[in-house]
């Protein structure tokens, strides 16, 4: 909070780990400690990332994640689809949304390089097909740029599909072979203003800052990152819930 942030986005498990769902089990004590630390610093949890949908994981494995999200007071969980069988993956995403609804959570489908929905059109096809009130699409400005999507495509989609946006800038953002290094907002080649202006007003902005160069300088660096973001998007929609992710 001292650096100007109000929320945090959390990633509780390595998405590449085969046993990731079990990392969320029996962690009520640890989650309580995390929440206490956040509350002591005036920080709330916006979203949790950690729901990779593949052809093998039964939907029951996501219950610990949903329970953890609710326990920490999160509003959203972020999912990615790794199953290339579209009909099966769409049905699984729909069932995940159904499971999340009693926890008052939205499920945000990410458009991310290397997933089965790397582009906006693919994610929109899934969300449009299931017609769930808590289904959404997570736009990451860097992944959006790497995919070659255009801001005008966002304007054609229902506003209620968007609940937050992840803000990242990078040099050589158009590269599809290597993940570009994240830089301060406004110092890279991502069209932050164009993308954010095409999204609905009032969305929380989840800032992904580059790492601090020196250990121990994190607070000052975090403050510099959020100031750079505010300068970059000055005049757009207004600033609301811009927080570290």
TrEMBL record:
Record's InterPro entries? IolE/XylAMocC-like (IPR050312), Xyl_isomerase-like_sf (IPR036237), Xyl_isomerase-like_TIM-brl (IPR013022)
Against Pfam families, the record matches this protein to: AP_endonuc_2
Signal peptide, first to last residue:
none
Family matches, as Gene3D superfamilies = Divalent-metal-dependent TIM barrel enzymes
Gene Ontology MF term list: isomerase activity
Q: What keyword terms does UniProt attach to this protein?
A: Isomerase
- Keyword Isomerase assigned to the entry: answer is yes
Residue limits of the Xylose isomerase-like TIM barrel domain? 32-199
Name of this chain's protein: Xylose isomerase-like protein
What is the source species?
Thauera phenylacetica B4P
